[in-house]
Amino acid sequence: MIKTEQWEELILLGVNLSSYQQLDTLLYTVAQESIKVIGCEGATIYIKKNNHLEFMVAQNKVLEKKIPNLKHNFQKHAIPFSNESIAGYVALTKTPLNIPDVNLLEPTTPYRFYDNFDKLYQYKTTSTLTLPMLDNQKELIGILQLINRYDSQDKIIAFTQEDIFIAQYLASIAAMSIKNTMLNEVLKSSYYETVERLALASEFRDLETSNHIKRMSEYSYVLWKKCGGDLSEAEDLRYAAQMHDIGKVGIPDRILQKPGPLTPEERKIMEKHTTIGGKILEGSSSNLLQLSRIVALTHHEKWNGTGYPLGLKKEEIPLAGRIVALADVFDALTSKRVYKPAFATEKVFAIIKEEKGKHFDPHIVEVFLDSSKEILEIHDRYKE
Fold first, then answer.
1. DSSP-derived pairing of the beta strands 40-49 and 52-60
2. Residue 6, Cα to own-chain centre: how many angstroms?
């Protein structure tokens, strides 16, 4: 009999799982919570990919005590839908399979237990409960396999009927959360690609290259993570940074592509690309485009208040704008343009340091200098 508090815990888990946006995080949570709720040693998750299963995640309380960073030791591999393996058999039949002891399977059993894992990690698998993760259309999303159920005396026992009932519920809510997360990842990937292509279009008019937007967006990504920005937004900034000059689509070619210095009047027109970019991107409900608007509008503001278009200073400038400002200047100075040669990186680092507290946020400058190795790796990786 399932107790009221168990149901409350399962319902709360279902709500929490539905909020996950990253597949890896979701899968590890499903595995960990399955171990906790059922009371077993390990959990493994396979995801359906075309006509096979792909091993994704394994958690094991016993092995984690012996092997540091256990989850990084497992290699992803494919398992066919077939009677050759327990997981493959369950994928074929879409029916839970409860085995009290995998080491006592009869030769006539229509599936096999492979002990490669046990031999590799000096582990002993005994009882297993393997379940199909089905969506509300009864389509297979993946396989959840639980290993070594133990009792209150830490003795390995077979999984019970109550365990099967709870595990089926877990597998069901996990299936829907995994399916939604996978769909969201596909949509987000398409969304990022669209943003990247829009950014590239603006750079073509400016006679710059896709490598420029790639470099400065990667610089921004590194700095955001190290400056205390919300990690869930780090990937968004990587793409929002690429939209920093989207407003240049509204600047005349005679100014945008001028090979020499701009006149004061031309400079004023050029500076309008920030407000044009802000106007293009305003009003969106998308977090990514909202962040892109902030970047487009504020990446020419300066820490001392002498920047444009709003003359913001210090923390009045959003963190994203402060970060992209530094990333953009560094890449512009280290890149060849029609009106100037590329400066040596040592010289540019010195210029950035000089502008600490003037053009740039002092803290971001320190983080940038401390991250010089990563910055230079990006610079070399995406050379023209």
1. antiparallel
2. 32
Euclidean distance between CA atoms 374 and 47, whole angstroms? 34
Token code pair at residue 79: 């398992």
- Residue 222's identity, in one-letter code, is V
Residue 321 sits at φ, ψ, to 5 deg, of: -65, -40
Token representation of residue 264: 């004061």
Residue 356: which residues within 8 A CB-CB, separation 6 or more?
Answer: 362, 365, 366
The mean pLDDT of 314-337, rounded to a whole number, is: 94
How far, in Å, are 212, 214, 257, 282 from residue 199 at the CA level? 11, 10, 17, 16
| Single-letter code of the amino acid located at 82 | S
Lowest model confidence (mean pLDDT) among 297-301, 336-340, 359-363: 336-340
Q: What kind and span of H or E run contains 164?
A: helix 161-205
pLDDT of residue 207: 47
Three-class DSSP labels, 286-322: CHHHHHHHHHHHHCCCCCCCCCCCCCCCHHHCCHHHH
| Three-state secondary-structure class, residue 283 | coil
Provide the H-helix boundaries in 39-160: 61-66, 86-93, 116-121
Express each pLDDT in 206-244 by its tens digit. Answer: 545 568 888 999 999 999 999 977 777 888 898 899 889
Q: What is the DSSP string of 169-220?
A: HHHHHHHHHHHHHHHHHHHHHHHHHHHHHHHHHHHHHTT--HHHHHHHHHHH
Phi, psi torsion values for 133, nearest 5 degrees: -95, 110
Q: Which residues of 351-370 are buried (b: 16+ CB within 10 A; e: fewer)?
A: ebeebbeebbbeebbebbee
Which stretch of DSSP H or E encloses residue 247? none
Q: What is the mean pLDDT of residues 176-202?
A: 69
Contact 35/160 with Cβ under 8 angstroms? no
